[in-house]
Fold these 2 entries.
Entry 1:
Amino acid sequence: MATIYDVAARAGVSPKTVSRVINHCATVKEETRQRVLDAIRALDYHPNAVAKSLKQQKTFNIGYVIPYGSDFVFRDPAQLEQIKGANDVLAASDYNLILSVPKSGRDALREVDSLLKHKNVDGLILYAMAGVEPLAREFEAKGLKYVSLGKCYPEQKYNFVEVEAPSGGYLGTRFLLNLGHREIAFLGEAPQFLEPDKESMISGCIRAYQEAGLEFPAQGVLPGDYSVECGYYAVERLLAKQPAPTAIFCASDPMAWGVLRALRERGLVPGKDIDVLGGDDLPLTQSLEPGLSAIHSKLYELGSLGAGILLECLRMEDEAAREIPGRYLQSELVVRQSTNGPTRDRA
Amino acid sequence: MATIYDVAARAGVSPKTVSRVINHCATVKEETRQRVLDAIRALDYHPNAVAKSLKQQKTFNIGYVIPYGSDFVFRDPAQLEQIKGANDVLAASDYNLILSVPKSGRDALREVDSLLKHKNVDGLILYAMAGVEPLAREFEAKGLKYVSLGKCYPEQKYNFVEVEAPSGGYLGTRFLLNLGHREIAFLGEAPQFLEPDKESMISGCIRAYQEAGLEFPAQGVLPGDYSVECGYYAVERLLAKQPAPTAIFCASDPMAWGVLRALRERGLVPGKDIDVLGGDDLPLTQSLEPGLSAIHSKLYELGSLGAGILLECLRMEDEAAREIPGRYLQSELVVRQSTNGPTRDRA
DNA sequence: TTGAAAGCGTTACCAG
DNA sequence: CTGGTAACGCTTTCAA
């Protein structure tokens, strides 16, 4: 492998001049520049990234840490939308994406250590979920630049991007109430996935009821784990409620898919016999026919914005970079065929 | 940040001795070893991976290259199973996983360049699909260690792991024929996804027909792009065939999901009115109720075995490492509720 | 506009 | 069993 010295020798200049040419920086006489470029081509020279890293104390690697086990990550389409967002931004930059997902959630700390301690990342994207606070605190203590997807602890003010779950719940519930629904069943988030004190989608649902002057049916809420199965198996219990729900609002799309399937099997047609509203509006949902109405959570943007902010951090000088105010992403309602209001003649 | 010199100074030894302790290699007197360990702890010292890389000409990074655009990758559960397999193996090793997925398929070469040329990976996992041959040839020319998931070109003998598609097609078709089906519709692979000359699932289906002494209904084959939509929209054309198919065999699970949905909407119950067989047996399929029968393709193993082979390569001496014979993964049939044979009284 | 030489933090050859 | 010292390949201060 040719080094910068080989190039310098062949071009009859010093390594420094070659370096200047490579980094298109300084003013190099056009003629020498050409000579150097020729030598580079002739030797098929490519600068060694590792050496450059050592010198510049910069690796051009960014770690994307999801401290929750690979089952959770690779089989959840919502996770993948976030990763995709970050990937696309980083692919357009000079940075590499090091994906750090422990096989099991219990190995999380060890994984992160290997990235941090050995300092072969310049910054981190950290997926936030219950239990992540110690990690975030460690990053802060060590002065490591990071941005979290979701808040890592309630008081976090900086360096995060978060989908505002309550506002999604509010939007969806208001919509269903306006359609005339009075018996809505909710398949919400499981407490163990939420940061303590994090406001859930449900709190937004409650607000919508209050605004409408109605009492929120707390007994109509079931916790869910975001999965298809969970939605599928929840239907029996949801339908058992008295009075029977005329609509089901799910905190995630996969749960809604499971609900749709279970309803069909019971001969109930979504959007006709009973309304269903999803909570992510994932690409797969968008390609389903007939369409599932959903709260569109900007998951792709969560990832891309997070990566963008981190890159910005890395460009800034150290001190200021620590404190980029957190950003909230608002959800939007996408109405498709699964929500048409309660069936009058069925009530 | 403390360096090895700081530790050496504090422990009153030379950097070399510290190095020895860190790498648990040489024989260091227990007492000095303890002194060094104390110093390491006291200074919160962590070896710098970049410096180590430079010295050892080894980065401990492995690139996972999918030269096909992030839409394709992050929204295809089958891709993700493969990545998960590789991730889990690498997570248990000392290597980091650098995920290299261009935003658009057209940027593929540029992406790979940045990894290769700057040599900050020790090896590559390359996902093979139509058009990947030049990349593989380049790796070989440069002596870069890689393993491909799928063959990159027909004559490839070494360094690949492949799911044997024809044998899956054979298994599934034989099963359906044995159930008594005579009118089977196939939703196969799209030619643009296949390496030229690669045997498709369909060739295995044909073999099953031949063995049964039946003629393969070539007009019953539709190409698919593996997606849910594709399956959903194909149903109309599949059902239009004369005589009407009693079973639909899909080359991928997502296509089968789309088919199931479209059938339900037409009031046809899978496994009763018409049989459906999927081609991947993805985790999501496994969690569906009632179950979709499917050819279980070992996608997770594809990724994990690929990563395992690459790690093995990296441990070997250069010359020999280039030629690890390719491995084929056999699929298995998983029978669930969607395949029960043709309905006699409907024929 | 260009170059000599030091240094980034390791590892490793060769002495002691 | 341990230590001086030269690499690894690049950047960069300072001087010419």
Entry 2:
Amino acid sequence: MGVIRITKSVKALLNAFAEQEVALSTVALVEQFQDHMNRSTVYRILERLEDEGILHSFTGSDGLTWYALGNKNLLSGKANLDTHPHFQCKDCGKTECLPMSVSIPDVSKHTVESVSLLLVGQCSDCASV
Amino acid sequence: MGVIRITKSVKALLNAFAEQEVALSTVALVEQFQDHMNRSTVYRILERLEDEGILHSFTGSDGLTWYALGNKNLLSGKANLDTHPHFQCKDCGKTECLPMSVSIPDVSKHTVESVSLLLVGQCSDCASV
DNA sequence: AATTTATTGCAACTTTGTCGCATTAACAAA
DNA sequence: TTTGTTAATGCGACAAAGTTGCAATAAATT
Ligand SMILES: [Mn+2]
Ligand SMILES: [Mn+2]
Ligand SMILES: [Zn+2]
Ligand SMILES: [Zn+2]
């Protein structure tokens, strides 16, 4: 793990995650910071922060890459959050980590190295409309 | 569900799925048929066949869309195969449906409408090398 | 065979993401 | 504080996956 410099752009991105506890998509972040940093900078910082274990990523139902605060910080202490499911609301798009473990189906013939579980539905806010 | 015409291209694509019992990615299919049909035709036929329930799709670890024979045909009779997991071999890329049901974690605050579970690892062929 | 319209080819376009390279700015050492 | 090192950034060009409008074509029906 190489040195990581806490640049203005890194601070800005980390701040975006600190405010909300939800996941943020690359597209949303690129748009949010389009006046403050270059698109490739956003992608590169996200990648770097994931390498450091500060963020983790997954693919949403839209095929986009989503990021959220990761193992080292917010979720530390809780069990086995390396592989946790994610929930995405099809109405408002809100996407979040689910703080629970995933039960892996038995596939004896294969070696399973990673699991990704995505639940899509309606969040509580959108359900109560 | 509109009328579906069994064109040469539709037959060719269905044939590709009939031969093998694995899932096929859009990219692989576009390449396989690049001399016989246009790229947009491939995408449009796949979409149409999925609407008809003949194929179903999911997103691979590569972010690509993968298709496999669906509910109405091959897998009919088996339990609840509407939501089944998929396995993708990180070595050879072979990707397949897992004929088992997915246990959905309890997210009482949300309404879950669909589940996608992807296992990534090493298939039996690649493990025995 | 004629008619209807679903399907296709084509080309242009969009979106997401990557890459090389010159410039800039963290950060540590002096 | 100044200087030196090099990680990080901006920029523009590029790539890959997928979409779209429209004219031409070919299934299916009569
Ligand atoms: Mn997460
Ligand atoms: Mn499947
Ligand atoms: Zn919602
Ligand atoms: Zn394999």
